[in-house]
């Protein structure tokens, strides 16, 4: 309910009388009851508060305006937030200068860009941020906490936006932790036995960002593009879970875009890699137990130094809880020999059996715990990684369904055509979701995930997605990175700041040289289409404009880093 002075957020649960009041002038947050809502207020339906943010014009309230039901999770409804609204506390913008107005407009565009990204999920009654195994090992005090207090902060994407509400425990019921990633739920049947199959990918909000601007780890040991993926089975009251993780190679390295198709990865030569590396794995071992690293990068070319450095760090650390496996995915599967992935599965089969999975019976008795996780990575932790994760998850699911009595002895999941279709499509959808959130396009190699085969059409689609990635990574990812940094609180707007980072002027050549190249190339084509009096004259024109366009192109390519769309809000690590 909106008035010129206040926002009144009414709880609509049965029997609820609470109303959250936000003062649009003082920004004070208080609790009241429904009778205090003025009849003159403008009323609209919302489905949750995402949080508040301070921009140049002042504070803004972000609310969920549309939602889609994903399914029910042990009698808890899971929702996907599909639309949002950003409401200004201020009634007018007359207090802003023209420059401030423009900056505020840009910051709003950044916020709306993140809100337009697919993959925000929430529940009003269930903690989506924790795995089944973590939730089973909690105290009664933990169970009494609000969803916001008990949430795993790695996966609360609106944590920064909820900071003001977090400070007041009495209003926590209005503050919903929102997950970013992917969730799918399916009711399945094998041998006439019905079970729920669920896949959840939780993206970490620590060291979050886009493909080429966020690589490696930070000083706290947080890895770029870290995702926890949990596969869950619910059958006749029993629940089984298998968890895997993915994350960037945990070293200090970068791969800044420079117009080349694959920029050269650079490892920092002066940083103390062991410090961040150990912090990363210390936290992983505390949370998940044993770590089985599956490194899928190429063992030759530009990726080779990263593979060697990763192996060396594991060896130097000498931690018995960590095992390292290098598998050159592209080499082993070249010429579309994807059947050779069985080499890796056979290599880790015994280890996977030792790690086991989480299983609890209908009475709540824990029958087995997962003792560790596979931590898979490639360069982006997207395409190759998702293929391997889907195969490991299927092997675990085979064991779970046999133990639960859904599969008969000797039966294979691969033989269950109806379920296999659901399974493969869900993992391909998971790949696409993670890829769009990090790289800006759908995943590569999803034809194999969906069909079990590598196809010519799949290769063509991979080429198209690679082309889109190239464009976005070079010409729009700076804005995308700034948007994420603003949303997560890595950058805070200060309207009193004398020099806005948005006001940094572009170098003249940023626009001039590309324009010259386009004009020269266009003239070259025009000269071909409109021949002169003689072929000699036409050839001379074509050569002149052709050399001009190609020459300008190579000037741009040589100075590629000057022409990419770089972030402006937060200075990213630059490794020379």
TrEMBL record:
Q: Name one GO molecular function term.
A: phosphatidylinositol-4-phosphate phosphatase activity
* Name of the top EC class for this enzyme: hydrolase
**Pfam families, from UniProt?**
Syja_N
According to the entry, every stretch annotated as the SAC domain falls at 111-440
Tell me where the transmembrane regions lie.
41-63, 510-532, 538-558
Q: Which UniProt keywords are given for this protein, alphabetically ordered? A: Membrane, Transmembrane, Transmembrane helix
- Spell out the InterPro entries in the cross-references: SAC_dom
GO terms classed as biological process: phosphatidylinositol dephosphorylation
Catalytic activity reported:
a 1,2-diacyl-sn-glycero-3-phospho-(1D-myo-inositol-3-phosphate) + H2O = a 1,2-diacyl-sn-glycero-3-phospho-(1D-myo-inositol) + phosphate; a 1,2-diacyl-sn-glycero-3-phospho-(1D-myo-inositol 4-phosphate) + H2O = a 1,2-diacyl-sn-glycero-3-phospho-(1D-myo-inositol) + phosphate
One GO term of the cellular component aspect?
Answer: endoplasmic reticulum
> Coiled-coil region(s) at which residues?
none
What EC number(s) does its UniProt record assign?
3.1.3.64
Entry protein name: Phosphatidylinositol-3-phosphatase SAC1
């Amino acid at each position: 309910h909106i008035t010129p002075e206040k926002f009144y957020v009414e709880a609509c649960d049965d029997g609820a009388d609470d109303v959250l009041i936000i003062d649009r002038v003082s920004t004070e947050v208080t609790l009241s009851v429904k009778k205090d809502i003025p009849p003159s207020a403008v009323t609209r339906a919302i489905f949750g508060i995402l949080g508040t943010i301070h921009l140049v014009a002042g504070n803004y309230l972000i609310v969920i305006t549309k939602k889609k039901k994903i399914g029910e999770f042990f009698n808890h409804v899971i929702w996907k937030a599909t639309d949002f609204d950003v409401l200004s506390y201020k009634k007018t913008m007359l207090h802003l200068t023209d420059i401030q107005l423009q900056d505020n407009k840009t910051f709003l565009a950044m916020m709306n860009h993140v809100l337009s990204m697919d993959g925000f999920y929430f529940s009003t009654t269930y903690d989506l941020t924790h795995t089944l195994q973590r939730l089973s090992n909690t105290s009664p005090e933990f169970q009494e906490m609000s969803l916001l207090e008990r949430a795993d902060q790695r996966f609360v994407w609106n944590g920064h936006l909820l900071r003001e509400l977090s400070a007041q425990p009495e209003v926590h019921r209005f503050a919903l932790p929102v997950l970013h990633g992917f969730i799918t739920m399916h009711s399945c049947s094998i041998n006439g036995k019905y079970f729920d199959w669920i896949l959840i990918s939780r993206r970490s909000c620590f060291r979050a960002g886009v493909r080429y601007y966020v690589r490696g780890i930070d000083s706290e040991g947080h890895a770029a593009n870290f995702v926890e993926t949990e596969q869950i089975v619910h059958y006749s009251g029993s629940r089984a879970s298998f968890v895997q993780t993915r994350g960037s190679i945990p070293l200090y390295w970068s791969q800044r875009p420079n117009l080349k198709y694959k920029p050269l990865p650079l490892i920092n030569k002066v940083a103390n890699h062991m410090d961040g590396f150990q912090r990363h794995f210390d936290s992983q071992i505390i949370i998940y137990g044993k770590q089985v690293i599956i490194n899928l990068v190429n063992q030759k070319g530009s990726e080779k130094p990263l593979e060697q450095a990763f192996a060396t760090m594991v060896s130097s650390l000498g931690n018995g809880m960590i095992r390292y496996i290098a598998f050159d995915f592209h080499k082993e599967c070249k010429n579309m020999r994807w059947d050779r992935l069985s080499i890796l599965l056979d290599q880790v089969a015994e280890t996977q059996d030792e790690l086991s999975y989480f299983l609890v019976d209908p009475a709540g008795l824990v029958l087995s715990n997962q003792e560790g996780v596979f931590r898979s990575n490639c360069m982006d932790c997207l395409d190759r990684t998702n293929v391997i994760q889907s195969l490991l998850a299927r092997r675990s699911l085979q064991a779970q369904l046999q133990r639960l009595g859904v599969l008969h002895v000797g039966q294979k999941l691969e033989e269950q055509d109806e379920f296999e279709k659901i399974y493969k499509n869900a993992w391909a959808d998971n790949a696409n979701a993670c890829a769009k959130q990090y790289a800006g396009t759908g995943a590569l190699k999803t034809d194999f995930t969906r069909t079990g085969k590598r196809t010519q059409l799949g290769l063509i689609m991979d080429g198209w997605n690679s082309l889109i990635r190239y464009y976005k990574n070079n010409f729009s990812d700076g804005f995308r990175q700034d948007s994420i940094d603003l949303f997560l609180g890595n950058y805070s707007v200060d309207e009193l700041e004398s020099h806005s980072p948005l006001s940094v002027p572009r170098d003249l050549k940023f626009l001039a040289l590309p324009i010259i190249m386009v004009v020269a190339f266009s003239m070259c084509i025009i000269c071909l289409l409109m021949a002169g009096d003689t072929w000699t004259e036409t050839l001379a024109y074509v050569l002149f404009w052709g050399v001009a366009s190609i020459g300008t192109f190579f000037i741009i390519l040589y100075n590629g880093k000057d022409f990419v769309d770089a972030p402006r809000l937060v200075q990213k690590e630059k490794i020379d």
